[in-house]
Structure formats: C-alpha cells, structure tokens
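User: I've been trying to design a sequence by hand for this structure and keep getting stuck. Would you show me what you'd pick, starting by listing the structure so we're on the same page?

Assistant: Good idea, let's start from the same input. This is the structure you sent:
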C-alpha cells in the first residue's frame, strides 16, 4: 500500500454503534470526505451474519457467506446493513481511491443450528495442556446447517469434527474448556494459559483439511464478490502461524493481488510479536500493541512518564515495515475486555506520534474521530483532522529527533521537493509547556512557521541557517509548518 502520498488507515466502527443497519450507508456518504482529509484505507467491521444477528458486532461468527442477504438469526441485514449496501460502500471507497480491508474472523464460530453428542475431556482453563477429567459425552452446539441460506454459494455443513472443542455442555448446562477426545490444541499459538488456541465458542480446527479447503474456497468467493484489497485478521495469537502463511500465500497467488494483511496479536511482549512475524515469514503486519501500552502508561502517569522512552520495546521501532500503529480500537474501549482507553487530553499527542513520523502505518479509530455516544465520549474530529491532514501534506523528508528531555520531545520532517510546502516540526509535552532550539534543515530554512493546530498563536522565524525556537503548551502538541503553505486546516 505504498504510493507518493502517506498512507493512513481508519478503523470505521466502534463497539457500541447502534444496531440500526446504517453504517454501510454512512460509509457511502462520507467516502469522498475521507479521501479529502487523507484517509487512504478503511478497515470495515465483520460483514457476515453473526450469532447475535443485528445486535452482534460481528465477532461471534455464524455464517461467513451471509453478508446481509439471508433471513438468519432473525434478521436479513447485519448490524451494519445489507449485502447490497456493503458492496456499494466498498465501491464508494474504491471510487475515491481508498483501499478496503475486510475484518476476517476464523478462530471461532457461534450460534450453531443443532447439537451433537461428542466425547470430550475437560482441560484446566489456566493450563490447557493439563486434562482434568475423564472422557465423557457432552452435548455440544456444533452443527451448522445454515437453513436460511439453503446451500447457496456453499453446501459445506459444519459439525463437531471441524472443531477442537467448545466451552458449553448443553446436557449439564456447564461452562468449561471441553476438548474433543482425540483432538489436540494447535501448536504455534500464544503460550498464555499453557496453550491459547481456545478462545471462545466452537474453536475451529485449522488442521482439518476439509476446513482449510472450505476457508480457502470462501476467501476466493469473498474476494471475487466484494473486491476488497486486504484483510484485518482477528485473534491471530490463537491461530497456528503456519495456517496464515499458507492461506495468504495461496490467495495472493490465486488472485494475483497484493492483499495487504494486518493481524491482531494482542500481547505487550514484543518478542511474541517478532516470533509470530518470523514464523509467518512476514506475510502480514501486526498491530503495535506494545506502543499502545506505552501511550496508555504515559497518559496515566500524571506527567511523570519519560517521553524519551515512548518507543522503547515497540514493534514500530524494531520492525517498522510490519507495524500498524494505533491509539485505541473497539477492544480497548471503556467496558470492553481489553479496556485500556487512552484519556482524551493525550490523544493529540499520541496521534502525532503515529501520524507524523516516518515509520509505521497509522490507524485512526472511529470512536476517537466520531465519538462514542454510548460512553458519552465526544467526537475529536476537530483535533484529529489537522493531524491527518498534516500527514497528507507535510510529513515528508528526512527525520531528525530531539528526544533530549523527559517531558518535551520534538522532531523535524525536513520536507522534499515532490510535495509542495512539505516539512514540519512537531513538539509536545506531557507536563509543563516549553520550547526547543531546533534546526529544520536546508529545505525549510529562512521561513516563517505557524502552529497548524492553532494551539500556539505566535509565529516562529527560522533563520538562513535553519535555526529556530519552537514552542508547545502544557500537556499539548504543536505542529509547525511554513506560513506560506497553500493548504488550509
């Protein structure tokens, strides 16, 4: 996803969207505006029917082939709209030169149509390598017949042999980690809980040849039907690395497409992320969870965090070509299992750190840009839009860091000749405001600068040698660009 304009992704949903089937139409309405401010790719939520029907955010996957077309789970549309609206949303984005990433959820299925009696053992939920019961018959919801679809697109019927296990015995009405007798959890997964193959619902057996073939068949159908440009891959830490190495290689060869992919490997352990990238031979990027955690800690330190260390032990520092950077997402929102929502005062600093530097592929969160009504969190579009535009217009050229103070850090992007008026100075503080003496390089010398964010009203003069003194307010960020720029906020 490289071209002469900096790439910027937007995650176009948040967890608490109303179940009114209007998101796809909102995408259509806003596609041209997103392009105008600098969004180059959009990550859309899971588009297929989930167990909760119109009330389901999409991760409790029921039928991968139902994109809001069939009357299943008491609804035709998904939470976000109908199949026709989804396809039109993709067309609208692509018509505005915005690439589309589909959210793919392969680890689990939920909302089965029928039960089956299956021989299973219980595993210790805190160490899935340890069995804590004798084999016994359980009644598991594992039969997926999709009666509402009536075999259209695929006649594959899922049954217990296509899964490793479940977490519910309908016979005893008991919740536990049930592994089907004779099955083993996948290797090449995260070692949390001994083996973190199992997450929820019916755990898909990706060692089953029939399952793998069906998922490949579905993916070809999906790409042909929707014309998306790539994938956001859910919960990859629970899926053996070899699967995605084979799966993505196969699709790229079959479709002759780049098919950008970014995986969600939720771990603050950098070595775990690097190991997964190595195991998958870098067929995907990963979200930079360690950076998110650093930003969260910085924002909640009462101004005591050493900002010089903000990129320590992060993916964007260690493997920038594989790092998708982000501030928050649907899982870190208030009330969610991975809640680690960054306070709003710090978000302009965080977004500047991911949008205005040379490394990483930044992702803007819908809930930050549009607000989260359910949690009374206001839209921050007025603060974030200048940062997104600054990336589009100014964040080019060599980068010089001024990370020489624990609380006030800065950097220069020296600009280039390909992008008119490019180049900027970013300075921020997580404590008291202040200034830095900065050399902006030859491209920006002998110029007057103003703060593109509007946080500081005065201008800065840079002399013929490229030297100037740049300012920021307390707990704030300023983005200094040349005053003769032709671009407006």
């Amino acid at each position: 996803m490289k071209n002469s304009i900096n790439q910027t992704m937007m995650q176009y949903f948040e967890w608490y969207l109303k179940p009114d089937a209007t998101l796809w139409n909102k995408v259509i309405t806003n596609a041209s505006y997103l392009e105008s401010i600098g969004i180059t790719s959009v990550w859309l939520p899971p588009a297929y029917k989930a167990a909760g029907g119109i009330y389901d955010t999409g991760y409790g996957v029921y039928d991968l082939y139902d994109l809001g077309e069939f009357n299943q789970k008491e609804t035709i549309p998904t939470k976000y709209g109908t199949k026709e609206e989804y396809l039109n949303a993709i067309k609208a984005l692509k018509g505005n030169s915005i690439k589309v990433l589909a959210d793919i959820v392969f680890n689990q299925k939920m909302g089965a149509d029928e039960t089956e009696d299956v021989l299973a053992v219980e595993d210790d939920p805190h160490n899935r390598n340890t069995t804590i019961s004798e084999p016994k018959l359980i009644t598991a919801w594992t039969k997926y017949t999709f009666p509402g679809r009536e075999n259209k697109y695929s006649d594959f019927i899922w049954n217990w042999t296509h899964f490793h296990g479940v977490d519910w015995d309908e016979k005893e009405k008991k919740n536990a980690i049930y592994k089907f007798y004779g099955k083993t959890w996948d290797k090449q997964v995260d070692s949390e809980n001994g083996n973190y193959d199992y997450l929820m619902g019916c755990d898909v057996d990706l060692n089953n040849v029939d399952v793998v073939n069906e998922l490949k068949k579905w993916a070809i159908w999906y790409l042909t039907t929707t014309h998306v440009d790539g994938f956001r891959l859910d919960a990859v830490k629970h899926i053996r690395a070899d699967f995605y190495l084979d799966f993505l290689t196969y699709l790229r060869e079959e479709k002759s497409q780049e098919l950008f992919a970014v995986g969600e490997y939720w771990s603050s352990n950098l070595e775990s992320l690097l190991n997964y990238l190595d195991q998958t031979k870098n067929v995907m990027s990963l979200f930079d969870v360690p950076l998110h955690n650093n930003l969260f800690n910085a924002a909640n330190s009462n101004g005591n965090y050493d900002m010089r260390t903000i990129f320590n032990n992060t993916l964007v520092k260690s493997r920038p070509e594989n790092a998708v950077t982000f501030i928050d997402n649907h899982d870190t929102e208030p009330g969610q299992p991975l809640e680690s929502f960054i306070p709003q005062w710090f978000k302009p600093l965080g977004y500047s750190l991911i949008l205005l530097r040379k490394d990483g592929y930044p992702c803007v969160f819908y809930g930050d840009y549009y607000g989260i009504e359910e949690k009374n969190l206001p839209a921050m579009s007025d603060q974030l839009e200048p940062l997104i535009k600054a990336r589009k217009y100014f964040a080019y050229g060599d980068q010089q860091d001024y990370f020489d103070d624990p609380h006030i850090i800065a950097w220069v992007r020296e600009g280039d000749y390909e992008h008119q008026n490019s180049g900027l100075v970013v300075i921020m503080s997580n404590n008291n405001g202040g200034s830095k003496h900065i050399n902006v390089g030859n491209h920006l010398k002998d110029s007057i600068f103003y703060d593109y964010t509007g946080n500081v009203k005065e201008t800065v003069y840079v002399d013929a040698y490229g030297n100037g003194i740049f300012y920021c307010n307390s707990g704030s960020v300023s983005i200094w660009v040349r005053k003769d720029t032709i671009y407006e906020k």
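That's my pick for every position. To get oriented when you compare it with your attempt: The domain at 399-482 is CATH 2.60.40.1180 (Immunoglobulin-like). The chain has three domains: 9-106+209-393, 109-204, 399-482.
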